[in-house]
Amino acid sequence: MSQIKTVIWPKVILFGDSITELSFQPNGWGANIAHKLARKCDVLNRGLSGYNSKWGKILLPRLFSSTNPEENNIAAVTVFFGSNDCALQDKKPQQHVPLQEYSENLKEITRLLASVGVSADRVIFITPPPINESAWEKECIVKGCTLNRHNSVAGQYAQACVQAASQCGADVLDLWTLMQKDGQDYTPFLSDGLHLSQEGNQFVSQHLWELLESRVAHLPIILPYWGDVDTKSPESSLLCDQ
């Protein structure tokens, strides 16, 4: 009997902080992307609550095979850091990353991804979204601290993310700008002033898909449609190479 060949799904990796970790909640942006890519890709959540770009850069090599990059079989990677990096240094020093270092970390993440076979054209940076300071301040007070993030500072990190993406040849989803476009009220996109609401998740899913779709459109549906399975000899349909 010939050896059965393992079916290997391509992967889309979602790499970032809590906004990525929470993206697989019901109606989350990651869950929506995974739904769109069913039977085409495994969408893997590598979101880590509280992490910043410095920690992400350090741990990234643990997430990918460097000995045989082809085994990674990665169609795209989203890199979504900045909301913790932009925490004010005097208020949240554990998470704060200086602006220039943040930019360099993003570039290094791109270089590390390239070393495991993920070229820059398969990388999508996502900027931090805007911050609703009044809502987030209430959350901070509940936790016994003062306001530790400012929207204007988040904007500086978003701009640095856009510039880093341009310099690396990666794509970018500039949430900070898009959510405030033409002076629109961005507060409904946020659940607590920092993290995404259901409306915010829908916004990210919609705009991310516009960037992601071209990177996965060529991928075939994996395994035959049920109506195409040979019922008299299902093995001939289910065990053949596609």
Low-confidence residue ranges: none
- How does the overall form come out from the CA principal axes? elongated
Counting helices, strands and paired strands, the structural category is alpha/beta
Mean pLDDT: 94
| Alpha-carbon Rg, integer | 20 Å
Q: What is the H/E order?
A: EHHEHEHEHHEHHH
Please describe the biggest sheet, giving its number of strands, its sense, and whether it closes into a barrel: 5 strands, parallel
Widest beta sheet: strand line-up: 2-1-3-4-5
Helical segment tally? 9
- Kindly state the percentage of residues in helix: 25-40%
Can you count the beta strands?
5
Question: How far is the first residue's CA from the last residue's CA?
Answer: 19 Å
InterPro entries: Iah1-like, SGNH_hydro, SGNH_hydro_sf
EC number: 3.1.1.47
Pfam families: Lipase_GDSL_2
GO molecular function, one term: 1-alkyl-2-acetylglycerophosphocholine esterase activity
Helices and strands in order, then pairings?
Layout: E1 11-16, H1 18-21, H2 29-36, E2 42-47, H3 53-59, E3 74-80, H4 99-115, E4 123-126, H5 133-142, H6 151-168, E5 171-173, H7 175-178, H8 198-216, H9 234-238
Parallel strand pairs: 1-2, 1-3, 3-4, 4-5
Helix pairs in contact: 2-8, 3-4, 4-6
Describe the structure.
The protein is α/β, with parallel strands linked by helices. Helices cover 38% and strands 11% of the residues. The protein is built from nine helices and five strands; from the N terminus they run βααβαβαβααβααα. It has a five-stranded parallel beta sheet with strand order 2-1-3-4-5, sandwiched between helices.
